[in-house]
Automatic annotation (TrEMBL):
Entry-linked InterPro entries: DiS_bond_form_DsbB/BdbC, Disulphide_bond_form_BdbC, DsbB-like_sf
Keyword annotations of the record: Cell membrane, Chaperone, Disulfide bond, Electron transport, Membrane, Oxidoreductase, Redox-active center, Transmembrane, Transmembrane helix, Transport
Cystine connections: 27-30
Protein's name according to its UniProt entry: Probable disulfide formation protein
Keyword Repeat: no
Gene field: bdbC
Membrane topology: Multi-pass membrane protein
GO cellular component: plasma membrane
Role according to the record: Required for disulfide bond formation in some proteins.
Source species of the chain: Alteribacter lacisalsi
Domain of life: Bacteria
Length: 131
């Protein structure tokens, strides 16, 4: 639970760094991903302090849904057929890439990685508590 909490806090701080310090304006899908990530930082902190493994059952759906939104956002950025339709996403188009390290690491990719790692850890916790 502590590792999942550390990932969620890192992702939360990363999103705040990009928007508040680097002044990157989040697109609509970035806001949706934040809606799923920020509560994970709080609920996993509580679960870690209380040593409550049952919270894994509640955080797993949130992290899986967040991962799906992140994957969709990443595909919008990287698949040309999807990229064309996202120009009308809002003030900042969802296909805009503020960062693009090594040709594939974008902000949605980082979010997808965090959500996926949290999901894997929650599945592990659920399996361990059933034993």
């Amino acid at each position: 639970m502590f590792a999942a909490w550390a990932i969620a806090v890192t992702a939360t701080m990363g999103s705040l760094y990009f928007s508040e310090i680097r002044m990157f304006i989040p697109c609509e899908l970035c806001w949706v991903q934040r809606i799923f990530m920020y509560p994970l930082a709080v609920t996993l902190a509580i679960a870690t302090v209380k040593k409550d493994a049952r919270q894994a059952v509640y955080t797993l759906p949130i992290s899986v849904i967040g991962a799906l939104f992140s994957l969709y956002h990443y595909l919008i950025q990287k698949v040309p057929a999807l990229s064309e339709a996202s120009d009308v996403c809002g003030i900042i188009p969802c296909n805009h890439q503020y960062i693009n390290y090594a040709g594939f690491i974008t902000i949605p990719f980082l979010a997808f990685t965090a959500f996926s790692m949290i999901s894997i850890l929650m599945i592990y916790v659920i399996m361990k508590t059933k034993e």
